[in-house]
Write a structure and sequence with these properties.
- It contains three helices and six strands; from the N terminus they run αββαβββαβ.
- It is α/β, with parallel strands linked by helices and 126 residues long.
- A hairpin with a 6-residue loop joins strand 3 and strand 4.
- The longest helix has 14 residues.
């Protein structure tokens, strides 16, 4: 009987994974919610209508990555960064294979991050 419950629990956990695991190498830059980095309006408002606040672990993704399953609300891990980031924003159509990591209003930290190639991972939802 005990073996049955362990097997059932393992099946339930595997079934909750949310889909196929994806990994991709992308270019990563950083951005801030400051007026100088937005066209107009509220610099905390994302293209999907979320409001960003300093301290949030959020990213913007290029639109080709949306087609690959990095949709609004997807949890992402970024090589070299601690924790999980959430897709909250999308980038201009001109960008490909790129993410922007949200760094609140800390422009210095964003500049220090610069431009890097990183590997990201996520579970594609079905």
């Amino acid at each position: 009987m005990r073996t049955f419950f362990i097997a059932l629990a393992a099946t339930t956990l595997v079934g909750c994974s949310g889909g196929n695991s994806q990994t991709q190498e992308v270019t990563a830059t950083a951005y801030n919610s400051v007026n100088s980095q937005t066209k107009a309006g509220d610099p905390t408002l994302t293209a999907w209508g979320d409001t960003l606040k300093p301290g949030m672990k959020a990213i913007a993704v290029s639109r080709d990555l949306i087609e690959d399953g990095l949709t609004h609300g997807t949890e992402v891990t970024i090589e070299g960064m601690s924790g999980t980031y959430i897709v909250r924003d999308k980038m201009n159509k001109r960008w490909k294979d790129k993410i922007d990591i949200y760094m609140g209003v800390d422009v210095k930290a964003a500049r220090e991050w610069g431009k890097r190639t990183v590997t990201i991972s996520w579970n594609e939802t079905e």
